[in-house]
Amino acid sequence: SQQGEEDPQALSIQEGENATMNCSYKTSINNLQWYRQNSGRGLVHLILIRSNEREKHSGRLRVTLDTSKKSSSLLITASRAADTASYFCATDAAPGFQKLVFGTGTRLLVSP
Amino acid sequence: DAGVTQSPTHLIKTRGQQVTLRCSPKSGHDTVSWYQQALGQGPQFIFQYYEEEERQRGNFPDRFSGHQFPNYSSELNVNALLLGDSALYLCASSFSTGQETQYFGPGTRLLVL
């Protein structure tokens, strides 16, 4: 079963615009990770945020975490056509065992 | 530094057959996890191997089994294939302690006819 859901399910924007995706989860977590998947292939790790962190940056990516609301958001700034992909959040509830529970994903389309 | 590799990339089987998928972890990683991703869904955890033993298992039947070798590579075996086993099978590797980031391979796409 899925841990939670990403919102929106699909997002279509123009190059240069910002894209925001949200993730909700159900149980307490140790950390939350965001992954990107191109065309149904392997997952690329983007960023990990721990439960005691509230915000994290990596290049054009900004991730926030609100454990009281059991939610996270991923912001991609100045989007590019190459950002077109599906984005998944994954939670790791048990420290040390690394069993990832994924959401349903957001399909992002960035048009030139 | 080679990343996670998986073989084969694609596979077509018929119902009732058996299949073996293979995974080589990223250099230095000792833990391998397997995930099943149905079309349009997020990956679902099958099981995890560490020190050649199954350490955790998701909600999958016993038809799904695995193995980890002394060099940390791993196999996923599925017996008595069903149409519903058609999916992308992803392998991920990580360090057993400290690092929680899992690095994924490109996946094996299995089609059961």
Protein described:
The complex is a heterodimer of chains A (112) and B (113). By secondary structure, chain A is mostly beta strands. Chain A contains no helices and eleven strands. In chain A, the strands form two sheets. In chain A, strands 2, 4, 5, 9, 10 and 11 form a six-stranded mixed β-sheet that branches. A five-stranded antiparallel β-sheet of chain A has the order 1-3-8-7-6, with no helix packed on it. The termini of chain A are far apart. The model of chain A has no long low-confidence stretch (mean pLDDT 91). In chain B, a hairpin with an 8-residue loop joins strand 9 and strand 10. Chain B is 0% helix and 50% strand. By secondary structure, chain B is an all-beta fold. In chain B, the strands form two sheets. In chain B, strands 2, 4, 5, 6, 9, 10 and 11 form a seven-stranded mixed β-sheet that branches. A four-stranded antiparallel β-sheet of chain B has the order 1-3-8-7, with no helix packed on it. At the A-B interface, strand 4, strand 5, strand 9 and strand 10 of A face strand 4, strand 5, strand 9 and strand 10 of B.
